[in-house]
Amino acid sequence: MKKFIISVGGSIVNPGTPDIQFLNSFSRLILDLNPSQFGIVVGGGKPARIYVETMRKLGSENFSMDNAGILATRMNALLMLSALKSEQKLIPETVEQAHHLLKTQKSVVMGGTVPGHTTDTVSMLLAEISGIETVINITSVDGVYTMDPAKYRDAEKIEKLSYKEAFELSLASYTGAASNQFMDSVSLLIGMRSGIKIKIMSGSDMENIKSALEGKKFNGTVIGD
Ligand code: UTP
Questions:
Q1: 3-state DSSP call for residue 3?
Q2: Which of these, 19, 34, 123, 210, has the minimum number of CB atoms within 10 Å of its CB?
Q3: Ligand 1 contact, 69 CB (< 6 A)
Q4: Ligand 1 test: best mutation among 119, 182, 188, most atoms within 8 Å of CB?
Q5: Tell me, what CATH number does 215's domain have?
Q6: Which residues are bridge partners to 222 per DSSP?
Q7: Any idea what DSSP says for residue 149?
C-alpha cells in the first residue's frame, strides 16, 4: 500500500477531553490498511484554545500563544502514539526530524513545530520534504463550506477548490493564534508551490476516511489545481 500524510484536527482528538473512541477506531483503521509508510500530524483541539484564549485575556502576544498551542498539539500527538501502540517515544520537534524518522521507520507522529502557522502547514511540509503527493485532512466538519456552517445555516459545501480559491477563503477567516480556519493560509501556499493535493473530510466516518486513503471517491472537499 501507498504512503500518506494525515493531518488530524485537534478538535476531533481532543474536543474537551480526549476522544478515546475516535483514537481507537482511527488507529485501527490505519493499522488495518497497513500502509508502507505514514505520517500523522495531530492538532491541539480544545486544550490549545483554552490556553490561547486565557493567555490572550492575560495580555500575551501571538508568538507566546502559538507556543502554548504547540505544546497542546504535542500532548495530543502522545495520545495518538498510545492508540497506535507505537514504538516511537519522542515527538519530533521539526519537520526535518520527522522526515529523518520516516526514513528509518514505517511511521511518524508529530504535532506543531514553530509559531506562525498550524499543524496543517506542518503536514504539508512533511508531505513536501517526503515527496508525498496527497495530504488527507480530517476535521470536525465534512468538508469546506462557503461560510462557517456552525454559525450560518445558508453555508454551502464546496466539493472542489483551486489553491488560490482555498487560500482566499482561508485568509478571510484569519484572526491570529488559534484561528478558526478550515486550513491555515500558509499550508495552502505550500500545496500550491508543490502541487500537493489536499482531501478534507470529517473524522466521524471511518469508511469515508478509508475510501479517501485508498484513493477512492469520498465525501468531502478536494483542493488542488
Ligand atoms: P492546530 O494545528 O491544532 O490549529 O494548532 P487549529 O487548526 O487552529 O486547531 P484544530 O486542530 O483544528 O482544533 C493549535 C494552535 O497552535 C499554534 C497555533 O496558534 C494554532 O492555532 N501552532 C500549532 C503553531 O503556532 N505552530 C504549529 O506548528 C502548530
A1: strand
A2: 34
A3: yes
A4: 119
A5: 3.40.1160.10
A6: 160, 199
A7: T
